[in-house]
Amino acid sequence: MVWEVIPINSEYQSIVDWFPICHYQDNTIQLKNKKEVSVYQVNPVNFKLKTELEQEQIIETFHRLLKKEFSSMQIIIQTDRKNLEKHFSKLLQIKTEKPFLANMIEDYIAFLGKMVKQRESVERKFFVILPTKAYSENQLIDSFEEMGNDIKRVDEEELEKMLARCFKKCTSMRKDAKWV
């Protein structure tokens, strides 16, 4: 799926005219051109924690995945700011309930505080989109698990959130475009 910014003065009179999705159900999206795509969420391996040899193996597996098996795969990465207030509150609650952990929790809170000051805390979500009939789901799952990733079909609620975030980004790009 390719998202593009359409000028307001184009042939499209409303968003419904250019939005490529007809409908969706479960983890499948039916496009207006009658094609169907399936959406999966990937929980990636922490690449930086791998040895050099493991990193090379992951890169080779991913290269093979893209080149041979899933050349029509699209990857969407969505980044959201992460609010750590609930996490801090939970830590303070645990500190109160379990005083023997107090020193460790205080150190952890101080560590998180330094990390947040150095860089913004973000949550990244990775989605893989593939034509529904063009691949074996087991082969897809096996390939991603070979690289150390967890992959699962998105449920309808997560699909709605992903589409809403894509749509929000697309419309904000449209507002910011100087040529519209």
Produce a short descriptive summary.
This protein is of the alpha+beta class. Helix content is 46%, strand content 22%.
* SS field, number of helical segments: 6
pLDDT under 50 segments (min length 5)?
A: 1-6, 173-180
Strand % is 15-25%
Q: Order of helices and strands, N to C?
A: HEEEHEHHEHEH
Number of strands: 6
Name the shape in a single word. Answer: globular
Class based on secondary structure composition and strand pairing:
alpha+beta
Termini, distance in Å? Answer: 22 Å
CATH class division of the largest domain: Alpha Beta
Number of domains: 2
Quaternary? single chain
Mean pLDDT: 77
- CATH fold group of the largest domain: Alpha-Beta Plaits
CATH architecture verdict of the largest domain = 2-Layer Sandwich
Proportion in helices: 40-55%
